[in-house]
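Record format v2
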Amino acid sequence: MKFRNFLALIIVAVFAFIIFQAFTIVPAAGEITINKFGQADLSNRTASRYINKNVNSDSKKVIYKESSNLESGSANIVTSVVANYRSFDTLGEITVLFLAAAGIAIVLNLEKSEKSRFAAKEASLILNTGIKIIFPLLLLAGAYIFIHGHLSPGGGFQGGAVIATAFLLKMLADYKFEIKEKSITLVESAAGIVFVGLGLYGLITRGSFLENFLATGTVGELFSGGTIAVIYTAIAFKVGAELTNIVKSLIEA
Amino acid sequence: MLNFLEEWSFFGGSILLILIGLYGVITRKNMIKILISLALMDTGVNLMLVALGYVKAANAPILNSVVQTNTAAFVDPIPQALVLTSIVIGTAVLGLGLALVIKIYDKFSTLDISKIRGLKW
Amino acid sequence: MVNLTLIIAIPLLMSFTMPIFKMLNQKLPKVIALLTTAFNLLVLTANFSQIMDSAIIIELGGWQAPLAINLYVGPLALLAAFLINGSAFILSIYNLTQDYKFDDKFYLLFLMITAGASGMVMTGDLFNLFVFIEITSIAAYSLTAFAGRDSYEASFKYLVIGGIGSVFMLLGIGFTYSAVGSLNLAEIAASAGLINPLLLQITALLFLIGVGIEAELFPLNFWVPDLYTEAPTAVSGIMSGAVSAAGIYALARIFFTLFPAQSFLNYLLYLGAITLILGELIAYQQKNIKRMLAYSSLAQMGLIVAVISLGTEGAVRAGLFQLVNHSILKILLFISAGVLISAAGSKNIDDLAGLGSKKKTAAFGFTIAAMGILGVPFLNGFISKFMIISSSLNADQFLLTVLILLAAVIEIAYYLKVVQKLYFEDLKIEVKKTAVITIPVVLLTLMIFGLGIYPQLIADPLEKAAAELINNGSYIMTVLGGM
């Protein structure tokens, strides 16, 4: 027991020694190293191309609510990275969540539990009434977050998480509340099919998987950004359904 | 002094989080605590990524009515996008881990990993 | 020519749709899994001749190559993708005779582990590589848990070690991005010479921890035996045949293309050699047949890593050939061992005695594969073993050669022990009914003999793959073009 802690301490110390060295490097002339804190040099990073929206087109000044028909029409640059420039990663990411939801459902339902569970009890009146009021509001907030994903902080994942929270609260308040397994599965599958379908449609019409095939509109307008909004809506539904599914499996275990 | 703190609170702090998590994963025997340590490591590395893209006194990478053009200074949007992905992956792993812990507790009636002698060399 | 993105996109689409297929018809998921893997093989075949000519770059989302995510499919990636999808195809045939509870979820995870491994070998982007590693490992965590009871613990162990690995990998990605300013493998490789050497070493170590877990390298491999022992047969097969191949590929990509330096390769050589010897020694002591196969698999991974990191063209070619053979042979071993285990109702080697006369196909498959691993002439293992030994002698690595020969002797001892138990001892137990595995055994045996008698079949792709790995300049040139 003591030996184990000592060993762990040594391992951690070695890692600390190795990793902290990375920040103290003083580069020789012409060498590159980690940028100092607060001094990230964007000009020679790929990020500058994403900020200036000149990956495929020429560099030009982008002005909020004026510039239109840019290569990526989202005012939120993180969104344009997540759902446009690097949307393939995002597809992988929702797949990870999908796999985890499937895995959790398998693990928890494969064998019947040998232990007896606590009997669920009715939640208090305050919780029950409060959640009844807050439930539709949360759904609305979630929808707002993902619909405005390309304009303001937020997006499909955040919106989906808020929506899943609404369902989690509902399950907390009312132990008889049950969402049909089938409907969650259908939403999950349909959203995933829409995402991959968008990618394949881009592949067929434009020749590249996940390529944007809609007009990108004017930066900062609600209807702008091309496929970003559609992708984010699909992601929100998928993430909402998956997180709800995970919570449901864990509660029912 | 203040400068030093500002510079090191993010890099140093996030690495410390990772190391504390690593220590926890190795030494703890309670499976829930192991998962908490893993979550600490995740948080540390996410903070690290964001810190690597930070530019002093720059704007969040969103065009809006205040920051109207892309000529303004922005922090790096790519690490933020990566962190978004990494958070989701971390959540997925954590959820799966917790489900496994529930099942292991069901079978062996203990959370102590050293008491489960199903598999050893 | 068919767009190679489909190799990832179609399995994704199919696994998202899998629950709906299940609602339509109970039998549909198995058939869909089989058809999807067959489709992937067809797509790869359709692109074969062009990739042998020159590597294909696929830009995703229509963004030009080094600036966003792109796929890079050269001879090496093609070889690995063939291995992965071929393994999945054969295991899908095997799965037709199996019944799993929650089969829609099983097959969607099975397809995703295949797509994840294919993505790992095709991607040209560092973070995308991380995402695909995570897809593969999360699918593997869940699939492992399919066997119930002890498999939960195996899965939990793998999950924790995999989680730690992904943190270090991500840290390495962060450092690389901060220094180079790009996530594209070719761009990083192009400026790898400029990176401060100390930082390069630290980053390489972080990547080694992250990817070494998938490639089953010592000392990050203590999860492997548990996983292979407890997981269902098809899962052990795909982990050993496809995922570890993808792990080796990622390791080779990072240490040959991304950070090419002889010193890193030397460390890999030591790690590989340690893995080899430890794996063989522990395998020799095992009483549980799946555990024995697991340690043997570990040892083979060590051998492959050690040989590839010799760094000469001949050695890389030998290592890659061994990788191909290892996938074919290990899948056959796992399938036949699975049948023998369910016939005997026990994983203990002693309980398998005399099954050779009752379970003819499985015992035959096990014997052929064991002979292949031992390197009996006219089987594929012979040629790759020969190439390995001659290339390690050429590289003046006498110690390594001695270790490889020693490992081969240990291997002979424990594989022949099982074969001898199967055929030359009396039946002690009641034989239970098992699944029929004739088709996969026949297919794999044909491959073993085919590669053993006509190794020229694969000589050209191997040569081009080895050349691609040795010369990272062409990789950089192909992606960056005239920039």
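Chain B has a mean pLDDT of 87.
Residues 77-108 of chain B form the longest helix (32 residues).
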